[in-house]
Amino acid sequence: MSSAAPHTLHLDAEALYAILLDGVRRLVTPDTALVGVWSGGAWLAERLAHDLGLATPHGVISSALHRDDFSSRGLAVGKDATHLPFEVEGRTILLIDDVLYTGRTTRAVINELFDFGRPASVTLAVLVDRGGRQLPIEPAVSAARITLPPSERVSLDRTPQGRFQFHFETV
Amino acid sequence: MSTALPMRKPQRNPQLNAHGELIHLLSTEGLPKPIIHQILDTAEQFLSVNEREVKKVPLLRGKSVFNLFFENSTRTRTTFEIAAKRLSADVINLDIARSSASKGESLLDTIANLSAMQADMFIVRHSESGAPYLIAQHVAPHVHVVNAGDGRHAHPTQALLDMYTIRHYKKDFSNLTVAIVGDIVHSRVARSNIHALTTLGVPEVRVVGPRTLVPGDLREMGVRVCHSMEEGIRDADVIIMLRLQNERMTGGMLPSSGEFFKEFGLTPAKLALAKPDAIVMHPGPINRGVEIDSAVADGKQSVILPQVTFGIAVRMAVMGIIAGNEA
Q1: Can you say how many angstroms the Cα of residue B307 is from the centroid of all Cα atoms in its chain?
Q2: Which of B88, B137, B156, B161 would give a disulfide with B314, using CB separation of 3.0 to 4.6 Å?
Q3: Are A160 and A154 a contacting pair, CB within 8 Å?
Q4: How far apart, in whole angstroms, are the C-alpha atoms of residue B12 and residue A76?
Q5: Which chain B residues touch A73 with a CB distance below 8 Å?
Q6: Interface touch A74/B325, C-beta < 8 Å
Q7: Tell me, what's the pLDDT at B251?
Q8: What are phi and psi of B162, to 5 degrees?
Q9: Which uninterrupted H or E stretch holds B280?
Q10: For all residues of chain A together, what is the average pLDDT?
Q11: Residue B49 at interface with chain A, using a CB cutoff of 8 Å
């Protein structure tokens, strides 16, 4: 794949969101709580909870305190605080993230989740699965699967009007 | 232990690495404003950890934190110990005052020995100003030092938890009048607070007390010197009372503790001079009836116990931040 690939890869975040919404609709039960991974996943969870009319408010979870690259990257605690406005114990949790890559963030947020209690189950739904997994983690739903070189980073942006779009950068 | 420690003037701020990241916490003097805010923001996240079912995060898992207290302080040592344990570190408490130092081992030999035991962080309290700097200059690049109080010089984690407390209750520093009352000249807490308050842009910092404990040359630090409580407390938003150290009473600096209380003790009547929503702080331990009246210490404007709670989160933040940065 050439380095220009991301720029020819037109990912329509809004179209993918509609696919994710359909997939998540099939997964949720009356007991499900959505938990979005800060920051892109939190935006998705907020909109999904609204569009699905879920009774339980969505939660936000941060990987900052459980990251495995702390010793090389340092502590990056910013505005990304975990906020879970419901009892985690015994709850059916659906984790929402924008981009699934190595699986390390998912591992970290699962650890974070368990610091609040023992959920009945944890399932993962993502907007984009870009492969490259380094841990045995698989999403139950992904709206798209793409392949990107390791030097490319993709993340979700939210416009002031609340519309989603993808942001590509070379690292 | 030698009484005079050599103080080398470092080339750059010894607390920061070449990227401007915090690697040691030695003083609030010269601590950049963004780093103070980073510490306070991080502490805010850690405060919620203390409310979780699992009150522990794995950031310092496998790291060894050595509490080196050359001067006794059970309370400060305990708060550092709790903070380190909530970060999953292994904590080793060394009561140096009673061990190697009394056998004549030098400070740097003690540090070299503990470093050979794979220490990752030293929390240092020492009666000599500058001791933590000396240690920071001699440790390996991956080892971090936190000053838990050195002589009359600095007590940066106390100042940072005070800043956290002020920010928590007052939200913003830019409109505040802060009065620090008591034995300013001997107080590392006062010195560290003055530096932090100034950096954070507090427009008026007052130091209040008798001439023997609050000399006029403190004005050089950019503070207003007040020798009467009336002048010092009036319209203040924040009052930081300092502990009157009994050992100062013997040196003829004060007539008696009763006399001090009459002039500078914080009573409900004196507190009424401050703004109605003023908060009362104290680094502890408090001397009831010496610098503070029980009715004030236990009153609704007192935030002395919240300070203790915030202190754990602030120390977690400091340790978490420095442990993640390489020299």
Answers
A1: 11
A2: B161
A3: no
A4: 24
A5: 324
A6: yes
A7: 65
A8: -65, -40
A9: strand B279-281
A10: 91
A11: yes
Query: pLDDT-derived band of residue A3, with 50, 70 and 90 as boundaries?
Result: very low
Bridge-based pairing of strands A121-129 and A92-100 is parallel
pLDDT for A4 equals 44
ipTM: 0.77
Of A70, A81, A115, the CB nearest to B59: A70
Of residues A170 and A93, more confidence is placed in A93
Spatial distance between the Cα atoms of B125 and B123, rounded to a whole number of angstroms: 7
Helix ranges restricted to H, B171-291:
188-199, 229-233, 246-249, 257-264, 268-271
Strand A164-170, strand A152-158: pairing: antiparallel
Q: What are B186's two structure tokens?
A: 């001997």
Asked if residue B150 lies in contact with residue B124, where contact means CB atoms within 8 angstroms, the answer is yes
Provide φ and ψ at B244, rounded to 5°. -80, 115
Are residues A65 and B323, on separate chains, in Cβ contact within 8 Å? no
Owner of token pair 């990304």? A80
The pLDDT assigned to B163 comes to: 98
* 8 Å CB contact between A80 and A62: yes
Nearest to B222 by CA among B186, B185, B187, B197: B197
What is residue A76's predicted lDDT score, i.e. its pLDDT? 74
- Mean of the pLDDT values across residues A103-113? 96
Q: How far apart are CA B72 and CA B99, in angstroms?
A: 13
Nearest-CA distance A24 → chain B (Å): 28
The answer to whether residue A16 scores a pLDDT higher than 80 is yes
Q: Please state, in angstroms and rounded to a whole number, the distance separating the CA atoms of residues A108 and A124.
A: 13
Cβ contact B324–A114 (<8 Å)? no
Q: Which residues of A touch B52 (CB under 8 A)?
A: 115-116
- Measure the CA angle with vertex B140, ends B134 and B144; round to 5°: 70
The pair phi, psi for residue B4, each rounded to 5°, is -105, 115
User: Which residues of chain B fall below pLDDT 50?
Assistant: 1-3, 10
> Which residue of chain A is at minimal alpha-carbon distance from B319?
A75
Size of interface A-B (CB pairs under 8 A): 46
Taking the C-alpha atoms of residue A87 and residue A103, their distance in angstroms, rounded to an integer, is: 25
Q: Measured between beta carbons, which residues in chain B are less than 8 angstroms from residue A68?
A: none
The span from the CA of B68 to the CA of B80, in Å, is 11
Report CB contact under 8 Å: B52, A116.
Answer: yes
End-to-end CA distance of chain B, in Å?
Answer: 28
Half-sphere exposure in the Cβ direction for A111 (13 Å, CA): 17
